[in-house]
Amino acid sequence: MAKKVVGSIKLEIPAGKANPSPPVGPALGQRGLNIMEFCKAFNAATQEIEPGTPTPVIITAYSDRSFTFETKTAPAAYYLKRAAKVNKGAKTAKRETVGKVTLDQVREIAEAKFKDLNAYDIETAMESIKGSARSMGIEVTE
Predict the structure, then answer these.
(1) What is the reported pLDDT for 1?
(2) How many CB atoms neighbour CB 57 within 10 A?
(3) 105-124 exposure pattern, b = at least 16 Cβ within 10 A, e = fewer
(4) Cα 27 to Cα 12: distance, rounded to the nearest angstrom
(5) pLDDT band at 108 (very low <50, low <70, confident <90, very high)
(6) Residues in CB range of 28: below 8 A, 6 or more apart
(7) DSSP one-letter string for 54-70
(8) Helix (H, G, I), strand (E, B), or coil: what is residue 4?
């Protein structure tokens, strides 16, 4: 018999740096899940990723207080800021540019994020990443 799902929790945690402090502790605690068990499992699962990379995770909680989790790739904005070497996006994206990325960098980001994007081919994924860049005030150059 399948376990009964009681809820899911979406968090964004730096890779390899899950600890019981907020937001992890309170989110898992209210569902009665073992916080330290999650932290150890998450840190082990993300040790291949560069430490500190923001990693979205979806935790599924079951009625017997067990859980499973699935990690996603870092947000496109993280990759774009890193590629353009900027700390944050523009305040007014339409009027101001804070950095530039090349089409090759956009392709790299699209390939890294492809499995988490709602795209059927790499060209569509690149268009999505270009849109994110535009909304952050990052110019895409040929």
Answers:
(1) 58
(2) 20
(3) bbebbbebbbeebebeeeee
(4) 12
(5) confident
(6) 9, 34, 35, 38, 59, 67
(7) EEEEEEEEETTS-EEEE
(8) coil
At 100, is the secondary structure helix, strand, or coil?
strand
Spatial separation of the C-alpha atoms in residues 47 and 49, rounded to whole Å = 5
Give the tens place of pLDDT for each residue, 53-107: 888 889 888 888 888 888 888 888 888 888 877 777 667 767 777 777 778 888 8
pTM confidence score:
0.77
Tally of residues, the chain? 142
Residue 133 structure tokens = 């860049």
Residues 93, 134: contact at Cβ < 8 Å? yes
Angle at 80 between CA 75 and CA 86, to 5 degrees: 120
Q: How far is CA 77 from the centre of its chain?
A: 9
Q: How far apart are CA 142 and CA 107, in angstroms?
A: 12
Distance CA 85, CA 79 (A): 10
Report pLDDT digits (tens) over 116-139.
777 788 888 888 888 888 888 787
Partners of 106 in beta bridges: none
